[in-house]
């Protein structure tokens, strides 16, 4: 088919290819430099404020470690869902409760494995950033290997750039698929991305995060896992720029709720040069998710205060009720370790808290029962 002529403001062009032309993006940095509006910079400043606010409140709570882990798992679930995975936050909590030794269970279904891999990759990337490393192509390839561990399909290249063309279906019926650039172009384009990150970008860091994410998804350097890896890089980039001490925001939830607009905004940049609209969409996602995280953390802190008031006694049931935010998903035998109590006492604690409505059994089994904190899960989910 004939190639589509794009306006001069588009950051790339279509090149004839059968059966659909492929998109050849210009390397970073964007030339000529974008004229970002004052309104967009104001939105970036507001998003940065909201992110700083959640970092601030999170450092004041006693359950920050649990919050850290919970939000990583929520991000992992939401990112997997965008790709069509049928997985829930509770599934990750159940897996980790059942596999406390840290050994990987290769028998789990693919959808859950994708979310677990995302959690592992994000934690790995954050540890590398915290140790002073920067985002490089080597790190990106390592993350890709983690993401596709035990979930790769035949013919997929793992831990390295793709060696074949890919076609991305449009969310709109009747619209031609989007075809990213050729494998031969990937090395140069991705090197420009690495250089752009190393130079610290050209704009406000949150605006640069939007540009980096768009560019990565448009280049689509890997045969699979690009969406998950691109969203993971948002968090790593914000952490590397000092805007996020911990992953207390989960942008994938916003993109999941607005999946069609998410895809179409990026395509509009490629075909029409509609940067302002994409930046607004992306920044509003960061702002709204930071605001939601702040609200959730505030709710959890109020819940902790309520438990400390209502269960202020010295019984073992009171003690564990005050610790529910630290152990929101558990099995009765776990209490032997958590509280150093007998098995009989552990089951009495479970009975007491279940009767009070603080916990509920989730497996429906007679043996190997697992419990979740009703209030904590209501807030997190």
Automatic annotation (TrEMBL):
SUPFAM superfamilies noted in UniProt: Fic-like, Winged helix' DNA-binding domain
Fido domain ranges (all copies):
135-284
Source taxon at top rank: Archaea
InterPro entries per record: Fic/DOC_N, Fido, Fido-like_dom_sf, Fido_containing, SoFic-like, WH-like_DNA-bd_sf, WH_DNA-bd_sf
Q: Which Pfam families match?
A: Fic, Fic_N
Q: What is this protein called?
A: Filamentation induced by cAMP protein fic
Q: Which organism was this protein described from?
A: Natronorubrum sulfidifaciens JCM 14089
Traced from the root, the source organism's taxonomic lineage reads: Archaea, Methanobacteriati, Methanobacteriota, Stenosarchaea group, Halobacteria
């Amino acid at each position: 088919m004939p190639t589509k002529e794009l306006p001069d403001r588009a950051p790339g062009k279509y090149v004839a290819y059968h059966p659909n032309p492929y998109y050849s993006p210009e390397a970073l940095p964007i030339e000529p430099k974008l004229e970002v509006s004052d309104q967009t910079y104001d939105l970036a400043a507001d998003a940065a404020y909201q992110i700083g606010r959640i970092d601030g409140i999170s450092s004041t709570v006693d359950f920050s470690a649990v919050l850290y882990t919970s939000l990583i798992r929520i991000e992992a679930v939401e990112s997997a869902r965008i790709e069509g995975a049928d997985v829930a936050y509770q599934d990750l909590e159940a897996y980790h409760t059942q596999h406390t030794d840290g050994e990987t269970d290769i028998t789990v279904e693919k959808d859950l494995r994708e979310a677990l891999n995302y959690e592992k990759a994000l934690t790995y990337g954050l540890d590398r950033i915290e140790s002073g490393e920067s985002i490089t192509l080597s790190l990106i390839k390592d993350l890709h290997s983690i993401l596709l561990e035990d979930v790769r399909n035949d013919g997929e290249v793992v831990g390295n750039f793709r060696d074949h063309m890919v076609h991305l279906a449009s969310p709109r019926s009747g619209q031609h698929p989007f075809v990213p650039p050729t494998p031969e172009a990937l090395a140069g384009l991705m090197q420009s991305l690495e250089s752009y990150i190393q130079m610290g970008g050209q704009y406000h860091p949150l605006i640069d995060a939007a540009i980096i994410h768009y560019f990565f998804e448009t280049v689509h350097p890997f045969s699979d896992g690009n969406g998950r890896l691109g969203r993971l890089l948002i968090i790593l980039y914000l952490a590397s720029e000092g805007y996020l001490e911990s992953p207390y925001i989960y942008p994938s939830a916003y993109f999941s709720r607005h999946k069609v607009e998410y895809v179409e905004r990026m395509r509009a940049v490629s075909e029409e040069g509609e940067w302002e609209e994409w930046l607004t969409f992306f920044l509003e996602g960061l702002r709204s998710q930071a605001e939601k995280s702040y609200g959730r953390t505030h709710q959890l802190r109020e819940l902790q205060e309520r438990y400390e008031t209502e269960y202020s006694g010295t019984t073992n049931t009171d003690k564990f009720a005050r610790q529910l935010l630290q152990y929101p998903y558990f099995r009765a035998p776990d209490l032997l370790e958590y509280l150093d109590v007998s098995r009989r006492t552990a089951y009495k604690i479970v009975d007491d808290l279940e009767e009070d409505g603080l916990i509920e059994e989730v497996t429906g089994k007679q043996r190997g029962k697992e419990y979740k904190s009703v209030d904590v899960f209501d807030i997190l989910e």
